[in-house]
Amino acid sequence: MLLLIDLDNTLIDRTGSFRSWATQWIPAQGGSAEDVSWAIEADRDGYEPRPRLAERIRERLHLAVSPEQMLVDLRAGLVEHLKFDPQVGAALSSAVAAGWSPVVVTNGTVRQQEAKLRRAGFDQLVAGWVISEGAGVRKPDRRIFELGAEAAGLSLADGGWMLGDHPEYDIAGAARAGLQTVWLHLGRPWPEDLPIRPTRIADDCAGAIRGLLHAP
């Protein structure tokens, strides 16, 4: 069975990793606790474009580094603070043992997203991954979900599930592609203006995967 999984704030705790980096790195550059809070808000859970965020941080802290170097530091710092979640790892291993084919489907740059996968240790636990930059198409486009299925040697016609935290990119996009979906709510209500609803709602990635394995 096909199991497509989002990367940021689904398979990995991307927000927590950014917060950890900002909490350590910004004070080391002479920034204050207020600067740390500002950066976490400005990050917008990763949806602020990285070059723009890097430039905003550089300007706010009055750093004597080039925009290019600031962007490198920002991206590398996030990866450095990622951690392997053993519960997610165990759930993935159980899924594979039960005959599921997990594939990561994520928007982003190939270099950064692959670095995250490897740093967090999940590159060895999935059947493959599809990254928007390399694929030439982004979620919620149907084509990226098709490519995810193909990475597992399957087809969307075979059915399957998509697990993710973004209502439109992960859940609505996958539902339009004919997949069943699990939404990680992360403490948020489902958007009232989005008519498509997830098949299931879960508290966390490991629990979502275990729920699929134990479903009738």
> What's the helix-strand series?
EHHHHHEHEHHEHEEH
How many helix segments? Answer: 10
Poorly predicted regions: none
User: What would the principal axes of the Cα set say about the shape?
Assistant: elongated
CATH topology grouping of the largest domain = Rossmann fold
What this model shows, in words?
- There is one protein chain.
- With 216 residues, this protein is of the alpha/beta class.
- The protein has two domains: 2-13 and 84-213, HAD superfamily/HAD-like (Rossmann fold); 14-80, no CATH class.
- 50% of the residues lie in helices and 12% in strands.
- It has ten helices and six strands, in the order E-H-H-H-H-H-E-H-E-H-H-E-H-E-E-H.
- Strands 3-2-1-4-5-6 form a six-stranded parallel beta sheet, with helices on both faces.
- Helix 2 runs antiparallel to helix 3 (50-61), helix 3 crosses helix 4 (67-80) and helix 4 runs parallel beside helix 6 (110-120).
- The chain is elongated.
- It starts with a strand and ends with a helix.
- The model has no long low-confidence stretch (mean pLDDT 96).
Task: Based on the model shown, name its key terms.
Rossmann fold; alpha/beta; six-stranded parallel sheet; elongated; 2 domains; 216 residues
Explain briefly what this protein structure is.
This protein is of the alpha/beta class and 216 residues long.
